[in-house]
């Protein structure tokens, strides 16, 4: 298992003063807490709001004098996130588990997801940052049962003086969630995540974390081009989601009919895979090195 050796400083701080933090053995990888998608931001003083970061979900661990970084699915991606792992060597905690998002800031100051794989491949990138939004375990104590706001305050202390590459994610303590969401969208970010300030950290999909996206996602028509059969010379025919593929013979097993207003994406991929294997082999080779399920 790939890891980065640490040189721990003699600096030590006690976490016993964190009320409610229970002594517990190191738990290993913790399945992440996932937000529930909603159409409207919650209002009221019970909620905190964070900018939704467009990046790779990552969980950073310090244990037995070593740093490991895991993807959201629990894969050991310390080597891929080596820049973040090296930066974590400067943290004072002896044992630590934090949850956050690896992201790259573009020229506009907003996250640039397309640039993230490229920056991760470099030995050093000033644009790559690890935005930490939760503290789960610290020096022999499990903090998941504490209210979120207390974990946030403890996290700020843990990251005080940390290298610039690792920083606590900003949060907004404001009652008007819709106003926060509207202003976030005006800034051009992906959206916001609203979290109950008194909520413990629980793995899996939770209603105490609410996700709102500025760019609405839906099913859209897929437009592609396929070779028109028996054409001399070969011609390309437009394939649109509201039409039947009439270029193939009715007896041709590769023909399929669009039964809904929109093309089923998987159906389209299967069709192209079967008809044009030389093209899709290139696509598969590019996807082979893609990270596993790492986005929130």
Question: Could you describe the 3D structure shown?
Answer:
The chain is 19% helix and 27% strand. With 296 residues, it is of the alpha+beta class. The protein has two domains: 4-9 and 36-213, D-amino Acid Aminotransferase, Chain A, domain 1 (2-Layer Sandwich), CATH 3.30.470.30; 224-281, no CATH class. The strands form three sheets. Strands 1, 2, 5, 6, 7, 8, 9 and 10 form an eight-stranded mixed sheet that branches. Strands 3-13-12-4-11 form a five-stranded mixed sheet. The chain has a two-stranded antiparallel ribbon with strand order 14-15. Strand 12 (191-196) and strand 13 (204-213) form a beta hairpin. The longest helix has 11 residues, at 148-158. The model is unreliable at 1-14, 236-272 and 278-290 (pLDDT under 50).
Short summary:
This protein is of the alpha+beta class and 296 residues long. It has helices at residues 82-87, 116-120, 148-158, 177-187, 265-275, 277-287, and strands at 4-5, 22-23, 33-37, 47-51, 56-63, 66-71, 96-104, 128-138, 141-142, 166-168, 171-172, 191-196, 204-213, 224-228, 235-239. The chain has two domains: 4-9 and 36-213, DNA ligase/mRNA capping enzyme (D-amino Acid Aminotransferase, Chain A, domain 1); 224-281, no CATH class.
